[in-house]
């Protein structure tokens, strides 16, 4: 399963048709190996920074021995948008600022090389190379987009190369026909880019899932890339290591990078292989920074096969402009200076206390420990399970969406940017009070509409699944679930038939993290008398849960509302979200 919005590949400096790892003169020691040479950046991140912040980011990068940045994409061909004022027919600008111009301008001042990504399109994740017409249209769009980008921004000395955002994997390109179709796409687009901007290289960044059945193994992967490179003049492959996304472990990396290197040697020796190091990890509270000791371990595991290393993504997870500055100034630059990752364990948090504020909520407080470099944050454990990771210096946490009349036990551990973990604080115990009982479900059997249809693999059979009272009996795929993949925000509107008193609103969600089925980031509930003007009942944000497969209810209680229509707005993100029942209850 793909990770559309989390693909933040990085590429090193490119010179001519070859990639080189730059060495910069900074306060830190830029001879330390392995080390990162650059970072990908998504347009929305740069768009939200002021010009001063953007200029500061290049100082942070160069002070950490990185002189390369890649704009992950500049247009979205599915939604017909661009990140700059475009003349492409039917396209509108999706950002507040002229992102490519701002990045290239600030990068040029800082002496940073920029590689410009072409278009993304979510339909890639269903079409891949199997739809020849669609792929040909995307090739044409890529060439037209490149023409405009080169015309607009080619004069910048910082414009150092191109990036192709469509990502090949080891599941959807197993046949020679699929591989040849992909190679043809690469050959068409890269040929155009080489003619348009002679000497500027083109990079792509494939990924594999070593833990997914029914896919190519390293031997098949090697054959796949040997065939593709026999046709496609790719200048560099920045292979995603997959550790942060859970697609591989550090011990599995060597076999995949060795296979890729063998393919390059056999088919196109001039192509360079780089390690696209994932500097994030899918943790208890979603995507967050990978500890620096793990980043270094992953880089070292492939040192025999690659020409250098790029972060995925330093800008988003380790930069001081991200919420995790301890990883940059206190930890990674310390590694560059000393050649080793520090190993001092933080002190133990003390005075942990837990207070139940209602049947759904427990508040935690504790006293911060000390660390030789600095505490980066805290892991929160409930019943022995890691359920949340909290970054920053604040010493408190609110655990929500709990069950009433239930005993809970908590402890907390401190961690630093290197990944050193403290001992556990003394356990705090608490019991929530009884929850209200709402015996009547007004939504049972009622009709509803949805703004985005369910995926054909997990459809809303008969359009009744959300109110039919048939609940999944466990966290397993089956008929009660309807699912949507990478659709962002979507809504449901339930017609109760007449105005009703509403005391509680609930929806049930599935989590299967290995398959990238995630709980929603948020679910907003609204009520209306007419179906046109809505009053917000409340929003449930992602609750603290452990990593096991599970069903989780997003529930509002103790409401005192009336209305005929209930609107549920879901932030489904960029992965799978799967929903069972929606209930509208009263006493």
Task: Provide the number of structural domains.
Answer: 3
The CATH homologous superfamily name of the largest domain equals Glycosidases
User: In what order do the strands lie side by side in the largest sheet?
Assistant: 3-4-8-10-11-12-13-16
**Low-pLDDT residue spans:** 1-26
Report the major sheet. 8 strands, parallel
CATH architecture of the largest domain: Alpha-Beta Barrel
Please give the share of residues in helix.
10-25%
Number of distinct helices: 11
| Category from helices, strands and their pairing | alpha/beta
Strand percentage: 25-35%
The total of beta strands comes to 33
Question: How widely separated are the two ends?
Answer: 42 Å
- What CATH first level of the largest domain would be assigned? Alpha Beta
Which labels suit this protein?
Immunoglobulin-like, alpha/beta, 11 helices, Jelly Rolls, 5-stranded antiparallel beta sheet, 587 residues, 8-stranded parallel beta sheet, TIM Barrel
Describe the structure.
- The protein is an alpha/beta fold and 587 residues long.
- It folds into three domains: 335 residues, TIM Barrel, CATH 3.20.20; 82 residues, Immunoglobulins (Immunoglobulin-like), CATH 2.60.40.10; 147 residues, Jelly Rolls, CATH 2.60.120.
- Helices cover 22% and strands 31% of the residues.
- It is built from eleven helices and 33 strands.
- The strands form eight sheets. The protein has an eight-stranded parallel beta sheet with strand order 3-4-8-10-11-12-13-16.
- Helix 8 links the parallel strand 12 and strand 13.
- 48% of the residues are buried.
- The N terminus is likely disordered.
């Amino acid at each position: 399963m793909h990770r559309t919005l989390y693909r933040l590949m990085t590429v090193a400096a490119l010179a001519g048709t070859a990639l080189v790892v730059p060495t910069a003169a900074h306060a830190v020691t830029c001879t330390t190996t392995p080390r990162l040479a650059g970072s990908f950046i998504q347009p929305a991140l740069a768009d939200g920074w002021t010009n001063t912040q953007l200029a500061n980011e290049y100082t942070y990068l160069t002070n950490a021995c990185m002189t390369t940045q890649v704009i992950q994409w500049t247009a979205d061909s599915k939604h017909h948008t661009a990140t700059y004022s475009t003349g492409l027919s039917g396209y509108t600008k999706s950002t507040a600022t002229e992102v490519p111009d701002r990045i290239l301008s600030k990068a040029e001042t800082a002496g940073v090389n920029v590689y410009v990504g072409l278009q993304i399109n979510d339909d890639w994740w269903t079409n891949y190379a199997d739809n020849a017409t669609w792929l040909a249209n995307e090739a044409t769009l890529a060439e037209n987009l490149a023409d405009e980008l080169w015309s607009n921004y080619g004069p910048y000395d910082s414009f150092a190369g191109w990036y192709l955002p469509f990502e090949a994997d080891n599941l959807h390109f197993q046949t020679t026909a699929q591989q040849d179709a992909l190679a043809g796409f690469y050959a068409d687009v890269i040929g155009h880019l080489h003619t348009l901007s002679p000497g500027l290289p083109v990079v792509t960044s494939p990924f594999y899932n070593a833990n997914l059945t029914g896919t190519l193994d390293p031997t098949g992967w090697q054959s796949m890339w040997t065939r593709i490179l026999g046709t496609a003049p790719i200048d560099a492959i920045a292979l995603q290591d997959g550790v942060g996304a859970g697609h591989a472990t550090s011990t599995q990396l060597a076999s995949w990078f060795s296979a890729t290197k063998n393919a390059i040697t056999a088919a196109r020796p001039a192509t360079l292989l780089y390690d696209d190091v994932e500097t994030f990890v899918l943790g208890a509270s979603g995507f967050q920074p990978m500890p620096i000791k793990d980043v270094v371990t992953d880089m070292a595991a492939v040192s025999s096969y690659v020409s250098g290393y790029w972060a995925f993504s330093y800008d988003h997870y380790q930069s001081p402009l991200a919420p995790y500055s301890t990883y940059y100034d206190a930890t990674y630059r310390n590694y560059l200076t000393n050649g080793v990752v520090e190993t001092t364990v933080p002190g133990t948090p003390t005075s942990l206390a837990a207070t139940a504020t209602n049947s759904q909520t427990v508040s935690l407080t504790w006293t911060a420990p000390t660390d030789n470099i600095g505490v980066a944050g805290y892991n929160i454990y409930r019943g022995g399970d890691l359920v949340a990771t909290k970054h920053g210096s604040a010493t408190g946490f609110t655990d929500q969406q709990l069950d009433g009349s239930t005993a809970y036990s908590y402890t907390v551990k401190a961690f630093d940017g290197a990944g050193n973990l403290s001992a556990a604080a003394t356990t705090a115990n608490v019991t929530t009070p009884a929850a209200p009982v709402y015996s009547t479900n007004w939504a049972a059997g009622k009709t509803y509409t949805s703004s985005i249809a369910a995926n054909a693999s997990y459809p809303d059979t008969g359009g009744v699944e959300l109110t039919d009272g048939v609940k999944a009996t466990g966290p397993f795929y089956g008929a009660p679930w309807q699912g949507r993949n990478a659709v962002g925000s979507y809504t449901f509107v339930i017609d109760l038939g007449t105005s009703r008193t509403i005391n509680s609103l609930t929806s049930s969600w599935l989590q299967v993290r290995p398959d990238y089925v995630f709980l929603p980031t948020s679910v907003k509930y609204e009520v209306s008398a007419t179906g046109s003007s809505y009053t917000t009942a409340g929003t449930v944000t992602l609750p603290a849960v452990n990593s096991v497969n599970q069903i989780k209810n997003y529930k509002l209680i103790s409401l005192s509302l009336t209305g005929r229509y209930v609107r549920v707005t879901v932030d489904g993100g960029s992965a799978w979200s799967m929903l069972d029942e929606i209930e509208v209850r009263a006493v």
